[in-house]
Amino acid sequence: MNTDPRLHRIIAAQPYPLLFATISGAHLYGFPSPDSDFDLRGAHVLPLGNVVGLEVRDETLQDSCVIEGLEMDIVSHDVRKFFGLLLKKNGYVLEQLYSPLIVHTTPEHAELQEITRGCITRHHSHHYFGFAETQWKLFLKESPRRVKPLLYVYRVLLTGIHLMRTSDQRKPPCSTIRRKSGRLGEDGRRK
User: Is 190 among the domain residues?
Assistant: First the structure.
């Protein structure tokens, strides 16, 4: 993927070494709007002094800001927390781990992808059903109703169905559909 060089500079400025950083959200699923921010997700490695002790610091780093003209929503979890979320059947972290829109990767990222293929079970469906239900309720509360929340419901259900049928998160179903329709290139950008 040809990524904007500004994203690489943003990654380099993170306070802890990253295991990986990927793009999630609307860009991943092929329906960003002109005002969509970049959802940058990753896992970082804390120094031993931050992990050992009674209080873990910087377990989750989160920032919403504009950096070099890019509107960013950055979230990174310490690997210990990230692994715990993987073991709790959290589809959110699977999507981050397997996003084909990779900004930064390491050999450990590839190894983790291999390991987690054996962790995908039917219990992941609960994550997708729960998230879809929440998004549906939010959609019903809106007046007037907007399309974007409905797309979230659609995306979540398609992703859950895709995962349950294939046990594969590497190609998100919405971006695959958009690519086949000729509206999205292999790099995830509009043609």
Answer: no
What domain range is 15 assigned to? 5-180
In a domain, residue 49? The reply is yes
Nearest to 93 by CA among 79, 107, 110, 103: 79
- pLDDT profile of the chain (191 residues), mean per 10: 82 94 88 86 94 88 89 94 91 91 96 88 88 92 88 87 76 47 44 47
CB neighbour list of residue 118: distance below 8 Å, 6 or more residues apart: none
Give yes or no for a contact between 74 and 28, defined as CB atoms under 8 angstroms apart.
no
Q: Is the pTM of this model over 0.85?
A: no
Strand 70-78 with 38-44, pairing: parallel
> Could you tell me the two tokens for 175?
């971006």
- Which residues are CB-contacts of 28 (< 8 A; sequence separation ≥ 6)? 22, 39, 95, 99, 100, 101, 172, 175, 188
Give the chain's domain count. Answer: 1
Span between the terminal Cα atoms of the chain, in Å: 14
Tell me the CATH number at 43.
3.30.460.10
